[in-house]
Every structure is written in structure tokens, then in C-alpha cells.
Amino acid sequence: DETEFRNFIVWLEDQKIRHYKIEDRGNLRNIHSDDWPKSFEKYMKDVNCPFKMQERQETVDWLLGLAVRLEYGDNADKYKDSTPDGAKNTDNTAKNAEPLINLDVNNPDFKAGVMALANLLQIQRHDDYLVMLKVSFTERLTQDAIAKANQSKEGLPVALEKHILGFDTGDAVINEAAQILRLLHIEELRELQTKINEAIVAVQAIIADPKTDHRLGKVGR
Origin, by domain of life (predicted)? Predict the structure, then answer.
């Protein structure tokens, strides 16, 4: 329902996100105005939402994730020692060994993170976020890439803070992942360029040693 959706956005801004000052929320609160979509679009840009206004489900998930992060930031001492009711009786050793066992796939932060990663890797969207996560980490890796990753290589440590990403996803973890992916991509491009150069040299070695007869104006025996 459009009215409920608009009320929901206003509630999130008023109660949790609070990006605007109170006196600047008038246009967003005027949910019956014909200009509300423009006000909402501006609001999305102001909070750096990576999705378009037409992508309503993704936008809702992202805004909820933002609200959760801000709520936690305002009450970190209250929430830092909290554990889910269903996880209170779990074996801590097993939990530490398998950190993904208790992953909450319905968590807004998880959904927003998977969606952002899928956008970065240009993965087709799917209703199941776990499917998108699986595609991101498996089908994007070719057999050559897996074999290459298994090879032990020594290199110099890279200071990520010295490499400018060029865009901001709104999440520090996703930004760092994007920086790593970009550096890996650059390394692959350099290797490709090296192979291209080797191919050019090989071709030149073949065509640069013919028998030339200037009297006939042609190349050959």
C-alpha cells in the first residue's frame, strides 16, 4: 500500500535514521503531496542509498539496515553483549569454529551487503539472497582462477587506504572488499597485457625474417 509505504519511510527517518533536521522533514512528511516521490528520491540521494526509487524492496531492506546500524551505534553498550534467544544455549566452541552457522539470512544488514556485493560483481538478482551470495563466491571463480588461488605466491603487503576506490557504497566492509577486487582485477589485466606482448613479439619474430628480393618488389624466395 502506497500510503503505508510512505508512512513507513517517514517513521524510519523520524525515529531511527534522523538524517534531516526536524524542520527539514516537511516535504517527506507530506505523504499526500504529488511531489512526494521527488522528495523521497532526494532523500535517497542524501542518505547515499545505492538503489533506484523503483527498486522498492531493495530500498526498504537497505534503509532498514541503515536504521539498525544507527540504532546500534546510539546504544552500543546496550546491545554489545546481547545474544539471540535461539543462540544462548549453543556451544561456543562450535560457534567460533563455524561462524556462518548462526548467520541470520533475514537480517537487513546481511541482505543489503549481499545486494551491494552482487551489484559490484554484476550478479543477476534473485529473491533468495543465499543464492546470490553463492553465485558471488563460486560461479564468478573459473577453474583457472581457483587453481591460481591455490598456488602459493609471495608478495608485498598492500596498504588499501592508499588506493582510492572512486565510489562509496556506504559500508566500510563493502568498500574494502571492492578495493581488493579492483586490485585483483588490475593484476589480472597486467598479466593479460604481458601475454599480449609476448604474442606480439612471437608474431614479429615470424614475419620479420623473410627473404626479400627488391628487384621483384615482393617478399619471398
Answer: Eukaryota
Domains of the chain, residue spans: 2-80, 105-152, 159-208
pTM, 2 dp? 0.39
Phi, psi of 84, deg, nearest 5: -60, 145
Burial (0-12, 13-18, 19+ Cβ within 10 Å), 66: buried
Instruction: Name residues whose C-beta falls within 8 Å of residue 39's C-beta, 6 or more positions apart in sequence.
Output: 27, 28, 30, 33
SS3 state at 213: strand
**Cβ–Cβ < 8 Å for 14, 8:** no
Element (H, E) at 114: helix 108-121
- How far is Cα 107 from Cα 72, in angstroms, rounded to an integer? 14
The neighbouring-strand residues paired with 210 are none
pLDDT per residue rounded down to tens, the chain (221 residues): 899 999 999 999 999 999 999 999 999 999 999 999 999 999 999 999 998 888 888 999 999 999 988 888 877 777 677 666 655 555 555 445 445 556 666 777 777 777 777 776 666 666 776 676 666 566 555 555 556 656 655 566 666 666 676 777 777 778 788 878 877 888 788 888 888 888 877 776 666 555 545 555 555 55
